[in-house]
Design goal:
alpha+beta; 104 residues; single chain; three-stranded antiparallel β-sheet
């Protein structure tokens, strides 16, 4: 017999290959969405920390004080202060730490 068409085995193998390729694409999109959200959260937290640092630059030199947790102000000398801002943006990731020196 000279039949044309696919056998059941060929159809099942092609469906298996199609399912595997589809699974890889779904996994790829899931990882890319997670990465996008993670990056968005990181840069939002970084912008918050930079905004806080800009606020501190606008404050008078003598009014800069530590809040004990996220903001640490150390007096290096009477005309120089060290400012460190620490922002924990994700429990599983390291915190964002911004550091600067401010002169009178």
């Amino acid at each position: 017999m000279n039949r044309k068409g696919f056998t059941l085995i060929e159809v099942l193998i092609s469906l298996l290959i199609l399912a595997m390729v589809s699974g890889f694409f779904v996994l790829f999109f899931k990882v890319s969405i997670y990465s996008r959200n993670n990056s968005r959260n990181y840069f939002a937290a970084l912008n918050l920390a930079q905004g806080k640092m800009e606020e501190l630059r606008a404050e008078p030199f003598d009014s800069l004080k530590s809040d004990g947790n996220q903001l640490i102000v150390n007096n290096i000398s009477s005309d120089l202060k060290e400012i460190t801002i620490t922002l924990n943006w994700n429990i599983k990731k390291p915190p964002i730490i911004l550091y600067t020196m401010r002169a009178r």
